[in-house]
From TrEMBL:
<dbReference type="GO" id="GO:0000160">
    <property type="term" value="P:phosphorelay signal transduction system"/>
</dbReference>
<dbReference type="InterPro" id="IPR016032">
    <property type="entry name" value="Sig_transdc_resp-reg_C-effctor"/>
</dbReference>
<protein>
    <submittedName>
        <fullName>LuxR family two component transcriptional regulator</fullName>
    </submittedName>
</protein>
<keyword id="KW-0597">Phosphoprotein</keyword>
<dbReference type="Pfam" id="PF00196">
    <property type="entry name" value="GerE"/>
</dbReference>
<feature type="domain" description="HTH luxR-type">
    <location>
        <begin position="147"/>
        <end position="212"/>
    </location>
</feature>
<dbReference type="InterPro" id="IPR051015">
    <property type="entry name" value="EvgA-like"/>
</dbReference>
<dbReference type="GO" id="GO:0003677">
    <property type="term" value="F:DNA binding"/>
</dbReference>
<dbReference type="InterPro" id="IPR011006">
    <property type="entry name" value="CheY-like_superfamily"/>
</dbReference>
<dbReference type="GO" id="GO:0006355">
    <property type="term" value="P:regulation of DNA-templated transcription"/>
</dbReference>
<dbReference type="InterPro" id="IPR001789">
    <property type="entry name" value="Sig_transdc_resp-reg_receiver"/>
</dbReference>
<dbReference type="InterPro" id="IPR058245">
    <property type="entry name" value="NreC/VraR/RcsB-like_REC"/>
</dbReference>
<feature type="domain" description="Response regulatory">
    <location>
        <begin position="6"/>
        <end position="123"/>
    </location>
</feature>
<feature type="modified residue" description="4-aspartylphosphate">
    <location>
        <position position="58"/>
    </location>
</feature>
<keyword id="KW-0238">DNA-binding</keyword>
<dbReference type="Pfam" id="PF00072">
    <property type="entry name" value="Response_reg"/>
</dbReference>
<dbReference type="InterPro" id="IPR000792">
    <property type="entry name" value="Tscrpt_reg_LuxR_C"/>
</dbReference>
Amino acid sequence: MQLAQKIIIADDHPLFRAALRQAVTQAVPGVEIVEADSHAAVQEAVVQHSDADLVLLDIHMPGTHGFSGLVFLRGQHPGMPVIVVSGSEETHVMKRAIDYGASGFIPKSSPLETISAAITAVLEGEEWLPQELTDNMDDVSEEDQQFAAALVSLTPQQFRVLTMLTEGLLNKQIAYELSVSEATIKAHVTAILRKLGVHSRTQAVIAAQRLGVEPPKTEG
């Protein structure tokens, strides 16, 4: 008897998670759905559900900076396909998502039928992109690729610390947020700088910002 497929929906907006749940159910009858509303929740979900068949990932979630969450997820769990679902619909953003390891890119403006078709295609081992994406886009720079590879070497806790550094938090503030000592954060920062091949917090933040994507503008 074939086991039911399992899909992780990662988005911090409850209404859009509900829409994705409807699309997933439409594409995969009997599917088991796991939801996450932050990068930390995604990391916990993929550890607890390492047999998941697919992750639907919003790149604009708490705890991530642009493509950093995608890169980290693909590095830590390379066998788990990821579809980026985003309100950022520029073609260069879609192309970069694929370059960083996504199996597909679904604009949030897509109708449910399109989202369902994309999910089905990726579950069948294909790559899915909107028709408007062209092949003449610039590739990700070698420097960005090297940084992405270095990012994968970070532990989940070091990744969280780096994310907080990009938000401008001090060691004392990060220690408070993570409920650890300031000395522990200093040790994490030292390890982060070494792994990323940089010599200061500022350089680490600048490097991380290369993976950034401007969040989509909201109306109102």
